[in-house]
Every structure is written in structure tokens, then in C-alpha cells.
Design goal:
Layout lengths: L6 E4 L9 H16 L3 E4 L13 H12 L22 H14 L2 E4 L3 H10 L21 H9 L5 E4 L6 E6 L3 E6 L7 E3 L7 H11 L4 E5 L6 H10 L8 E5 L2 E2 L9 H7 L8 E2 L6 E2 L2 H4 L3 H9 L14 H7 L10 E2 L2 H14 L2 H14 L7 H11 L8 H6 L20 H15 L7 H14 L4 H13 L7 H8 L1 H16 L1
Parallel strand pairs: 1-2, 8-9, 10-13
Antiparallel strand pairs: 3-4, 4-7, 5-6, 11-12
Helix pairs in contact: 1-11, 6-7, 10-12, 13-14, 16-20, 17-19, 18-20
Length: 507
């Protein structure tokens, strides 16, 4: 840690859905900033206009809002270093690219896309760098008067960094420790494209400097770009202000072989995006954790444990606890395997952990989406308390709670009809008479005692009538204690359901 204020950033490209690895990067940035009383900045890196997808920026903002990871500065919130979209900062970058050319650290390259494709086809493992730059069309290989003429004519060109030969570049990663690179292995990356837009390499350095970013956390897939960025910080004279870096481990497929992708989720039947994403370009709809029925608390909790632990056996953490306990020292270098069953476990535990009042708006939305109108919130709270321990996803509340609001539309007849007898019909007719004989509120314990006494009187066993009674009330072999269900439904509704089910059972 340095003495300067902690300022971290998440800088996504608005090109598609937000992968759970991206949200984990947001989370680790956010936790670190809040633990050290710093700022979390959202910066939109929209310099690649060919890949820009309409609606993607709004989607990213909605995802962060759902997760409760609101930025202190962003394109929407604003802030002292606005604008926070790189496309609106375009004029800044050429100045720095041209400065690098003047210093001899970068150069103009006039090669066409066709010329470069030809080289890639003819030269195995072709890289635009020190091995071939002298034979290509650029301001290193061409005489100055020809370069000037090409620039004066407005010839399309890019600006590339000139990677030095035979140097070793090193830095200290906050997770990985000492990391070194040989410059001979790195090609001359494009810094400024022909359309005047910067590439990620130039923009990330310029913006991190101008926005006074103190720490930069990103996925380990960006590690190979580090030598280019290190040189740019040095060449632009900003090395003393360079943020401390941490390259986060990958989130791996369930088998541990390779980075988890959208295709893996589709193949294995689980989402990899925070929220459902509709791609306006392709028309493709990709499912998300929110729509599947995950709580944001559970989603963040499971992401926090992918590559981090606090050194104890604790698994459930509130956001406040994560802020308090988070430390990069406890982030693993190794990739973390994604386990969807464990993810569902987190959600089930958080459904149990949250009180009914917190769950009420979410459960209400699930039920109303299925056509169930909620007129009594107190009744809904009672239902939630009765069944929440049985739900894994929010969508489960429809099956587990729906029958409290509407009678079963169908019954598990296969579990009842093959063993149905006249004696069972007689029992339930007698039970109906018993319920009709008393008009006081139905109480679970006393009703259970009366039910069992009638069962003994009719010489029936629990196995004969308990399951049919459950199916009469809920439609299937599920739900909490059956007498709790009956008590909540009340006498008249229980009588009505017995009568309706008897017709189906005896048809």
C-alpha cells in the first residue's frame, strides 16, 4: 500500500453480456476500495466501434446495480475525471501517441490489412515486431521524405510501440509476486488505430494516469500485455505514478480444464452471465443468474469464494463482512473451478438467511409472473416463513408457495389411484364432517391429533391417508408439514380441496 488515495476501476467493453468473471473483477475492486476508504470507478472502454453492441453499456450498469456494487464515478454518476467513456476522450490519445513517436518509442505503420494478411499466410508465426519491422511499410523502414509524403497525403496508418530488443521487463504483482518478460517475445502492438481511436494498450495507460488510479486488478489473461503497459508508463514519464497491479486467477470450467465460457454454460445447463443478455446484433438470448432465480447476495458470495478465502471455514459472507475481511494476500494464483451445485447451495443458504420481509418483493414478483395476485402481504410473509427453507432458487417459490393462493390444477394421481379404496373415501368424508362440525380457527397441532384419532377409529395407517391428504392440498408429494398447510389454508379451503380431490381420485 502507498500513501496515495486508493482509486480502482473496472473498465469493460460494451460488446456483450457480463461474464461472472467480470463481476468477480468488479467485486474484488469494490471490496479493496471500500476496505481502504477509496473510490471505485466505472470506465467504459468503447474504443473498438466495430464490436460495439447497442444496449451493452446500459446492461453493464444494470448488472452492477443488481449486485449492489455501485460505482463512485461513472458515465452516469460523473466525477472529477470525466468523461468516463473512452470514445468521448478520443482527442486525448493522439497527443500521447505522437509524443511516443517523437521520442523514438513508437512509429507510423502504413501496411494495409491485405499486406499483413499476406505476411501471415506466407510467414509461419508472423509477428509485427523487431524480426520483420525493417522489411515492412513503416516510418522505421521508409526514408523520412516518403513518410512525410504519406502523412501529408492522409494515407491510412496506425501507430505502433517499438519494443526494445534484448531487454527483461519486470514488475511485482500483488498476487503473483515477481513477474518478468523478455521483450524479444513481444510484438509491436498497435497503440493508435487508423480511425484515430486508441487500442486498449494506450488508452488504459493514459486513462489510469489521468484518473489517478492507484491499483489495477484485472484477469490473468491480460498478463501478456503487461510488458507493453510497463514500457508505456516508463516512456511517457509516469513510472512513479504507475498503479500497483494484480492479475486475478481465471474461473475455470467445472472439470478444471480451461477458462469457463458461455458455450460451457450452454453445454452444461447453467448461466455464466450475471443477467440475461439479448444481443441486438445477433438476436441471441443468453440466460443470466438473476433470471434463473439467484439472489444478488448469493451471487456475490459465490464469486468471492472463487479464488479467495478468509483463512477460516466460513462460507457465508455479507457484503459488509467481505469488505472487512477481504485481502489480496488470500487470493489464489491458481484458477478456481466453477461448481454450479455449490452455486445453488449458496443461493439456498441465502434464501434461508434472509428474513421474509426482504424476500417478499422477490417472491411476490415470481408469483405474480405466474398469474397469482397477492392481496394480503401478511399472509404472504407467513407463507414465505413456512416454505423458504425448501427453496433453492427464487423460481422454486412458485411450486412451494403457489398452492397457498390457488387450488391445485392437477394431482399426482399415479401416487394415489392405484391404491385407492372405499375405506379411504369414507375416511375423507368423515374428516370433512369433522372439519364442518367446528367453526373455530384451524390449529395445526389439535387438527393433527384429531386426524390421527379418526385414522385409528377407521383402522387406517398413516401410510394410507397422509400422502393422499398432502396431494389433496398441494397437488404433489412436496411442501412443509401437511397440518401446517391445512392450518394456513383454513377450514373451508381445506374442505373444498378435499372435495375437489375426491372427485379426481374416485373418477
Amino acid at each position: 500500500m502507498t500513501d496515495k488515495k486508493v482509486r480502482v476501476r473496472f473498465a469493460p467493453s460494451p460488446t456483450g453480456g457480463l461474464h461472472l468473471g467480470g463481476v468477480r473483477t468488479v467485486l474484488f475492486n469494490y471490496l479493496f476500495a471500500k476496505k481502504h476508504h477509496g473510490d471505485f470507478i466505472l470506465r467504459i472502454e468503447d474504443t473498438d466501434q466495430t464490436r460495439y453492441v447497442e444496449g451493452a453499456e446500459e446492461y453493464i450498469l444494470d448488472c452492477l446495480k443488481w449486485c449492489g456494487l455501485q460505482p463512485d464515478e461513472s458515465p452516469v454518476v460523473g466525477g472529477p475525471y470525466a468523461p468516463y467513456r473512452q470514445s468521448e476522450r478520443k482527442a486525448l490519445y493522439r497527443e500521447y501517441a505522437e509524443r511516443l513517436v517523437m521520442q523514438g518509442h513508437a512509429y507510423y505503420a502504413f501496411d494495409t490489412a491485405e499486406e499483413l494478411d499476406k505476411n501471415r499466410k506466407e510467414i509461419p508465426n508472423f509477428q509485427y515486431g523487431q524480426a520483420y519491422r525493417d522489411s515492412l511499410r513503416n516510418s522505421i523502414s521508409l526514408p523520412q521524405h516518403e513518410v512525410d509524403a504519406l502523412l501529408d497525403a492522409g494515407t491510412p496508418h496506425v501507430i505502433r510501440i517499438k519494443m526494445p530488443a534484448d531487454e527483461t521487463i519486470s514488475f511485482n504483482d500483488m498476487i503473483r509476486g515477481h513477474v518478468s518478460f523478455e521483450t524479444n517475445q513481444v510484438d509491436d502492438k498497435v497503440l493508435l488505430k487508423a480511425d484515430g481511436m486508441p487500442t486498449y494498450h494506450l488508452a488504459v495507460v493514459v486513462d489510469d494516469y489521468l484518473m489517478k488510479i492507484s491499483h489495477a486488478f484485472r484477469g490473468e489473461e491480460w498478463l501478456p500485455s503487461a510488458p507493453v503497459h510497463l514500457l508505456l508508463w516508463d516512456y511517457l514519464g509516469w513510472k512513479a505514478d504507475m498503479p500497483q497491479w494484480a492479475h486475478l486467477p481465471l474461473i475455470l470450467k467445472p472439470d478444471g480444464h480451461g477458462k469457463l465460457s458461455k458455450r460451457d454454460g450452454a453445454r452444461l445447463g447453467f448461466p455464466v452471465y450475471a443477467m440475461t443478455w439479448f444481443d441486438a446484433k445477433t438476436g441471441e438470448l443468453t440466460p443470466g443468474f438473476r433470471e434463473l432465480g439467484f439472489l444478488p447476495e448469493a451471487f456475490l458470495n459465490l464469486l468471492a469464494t472463487l479464488g479467495w478465502n478468509d483463512g477460516t471455514d466460513q462460507e457465508l459472507f455479507t457484503l459488509a463482512e467481505l469488505i472487512e475481511k477481504f485481502s489480496l494476500d488470500r487470493v489464489s494464483k491458481a484458477g478456481a473451478k466453477f461448481d454450479f451445485e455449490k452455486a445453488k447451495w449458496f443461493n439456498a443458504e441465502w434464501i434461508k438467511k434472509l428474513n421474509a420481509e426482504s424476500l417478499k418483493p422477490k417472491v411476490k414478483a415470481v408469483l405474480e409472473e405466474k398469474g397469482i395476485t397477492i392481496n394480503n402481504d401478511d399472509y404472504l410473509l407467513t407463507v414465505i416463513n413456512l416454505i423458504k427453507d425448501r427453496c433453492v432458487l427464487l423460481a422454486d417459490f412458485y411450486q412451494q408457495a403457489g398452492y397457498f393462493f390457488e387450488q391445485p390444477k392437477e394431482y399426482d394421481l399415479n401416487a394415489v389411484k392405484p391404491k385407492w379404496t372405499d375405506a379411504k373415501t369414507d375416511f375423507f368424508n368423515a374428516l370433512t364432517a369433522l372439519l364442518n362440525s367446528d367453526q373455530t380457527a384451524l390449529e395445526a397441532h389439535s387438527f393433527e391429533e384429531a386426524f390421527k384419532a379418526l385414522m385409528d377409529e377407521k383402522a387406517l395407517k398413516a401410510g394410507d391417508v397422509m400422502l393422499p391428504f398432502r396431494i389433496m392440498l398441494v397437488g404433489g408429494k412436496f411442501g412443509p408439514h401437511v397440518f401446517d398447510i391445512a392450518a394456513l389454508l383454513g377450514r373451508q379451503e381445506t374442505i373444498s380441496r378435499i372435495a375437489k380431490a375426491l372427485e379426481a381420485f374416485t373418477a
